[in-house]
Amino acid sequence: MLKMMGKTSFSSSSYSYCRSTRGMLFLHTTPIVALFPSKSSNSTKSRQTQRGKPRVGNVEHALKVFDEMLHSRPLPSAIRFTQILTQLARLKHYSAVISLNREMSLLGIASNVYTLTIIINCYCHLNQMGYALSVLGQFFKSGLQPDVATFTTLIHGFVLQNRVAEAARLFSKMLGRGHCQPNVFTFNTLIKGFCMIGNNSAAMELLRKMEERGCQPDTVTYNTIIDSLCKDTLVDQALNLFTEMIGRGIAPSVVTYNSLIDGVCRLGKWKEAKRLLNEMVSKNIFPNVRTFTVLVDALCKEGMVAEAKSVVEMMIQRGIEPDMVTYSSLMDGYCL
């Protein structure tokens, strides 16, 4: 395997490290872009506040722009305020977003569906699911209808807190309502939750339900289940799912191969690991630091420390910087 790897040419720019763990989180947010007519002004800052999407680089700048907007007359629309809240949420200043939204309410600036969904997301990240659920009441008071993003955000919040059963109940209620159909992000979020608690059968069942409802699984869907199966040493099932994935025309990624290589290495199937490594390279999917770290860890656990050290040296030669996990695995090998 090492000989084959040594002949392969890798570029350091081709690597992106994605640690494949049960706790991987994801939340997809689509920004709202809207234009608000501006008045003529000599102030550049004022023009930035009134034209296009307000850009903020940090929380201080965001608060300043928000304050300028509050003092503008006429007041900008809720969409423009929501754009600021969106950027603050991306900067992970969740409490600030909630506070600013309260100021909006005091001034009579009505929140829209997207605004309230952002607030739910902030409460979820602050581990305040009770408040997140209470925001649903604001939807109905305002005559608004929660959409798929709203429900997906709440489901994600429960998954974040490992409250997967509650996430599943909310998903069932979403299906029962009928007017709001789950999308691939909704399914992926709940599938990740099931995999986090090791309930692979429920994850597989949800995958089949996706197909029944005409929702197309994507690479993330398959990667999540394959990774979970490999962690539970259910490698044959993972390889079968991998074959299904390829058959459906869904392209695997380096994350897919990393999980499979990790799985076969756990079982000491070195020939299979070599085959997968050859296959990924032939598809122009180049190993990253995670791939090599998996190999180093597996070799060390088998007492093959010299071979593991050679992998680390090869990484460095190829411009791939080993991380703490790589070196920890190598040190553990010397201690065995």
Automatic annotation (TrEMBL):
Species for this entry:
Rosa chinensis (China rose)
Q: Which Pfam family name is an example for this entry?
A: PPR_2
Which residues form the PPR repeats? 112-146, 147-181, 183-217, 218-252, 253-287, 288-322
InterPro entries given for it?
PPR/CCM1_RNA-binding, PPR_rpt, TPR-like_helical_dom_sf
According to its UniProt record, which protein family does this protein belong to? Belongs to the PPR family. P subfamily.
Name this polypeptide is given? Putative tetratricopeptide-like helical domain-containing protein
Keyword Zinc attributed: no
In terms of Gene3D superfamilies, this protein maps to:
Tetratricopeptide repeat domain
Instruction: Give the domain of life.
Output: Eukaryota
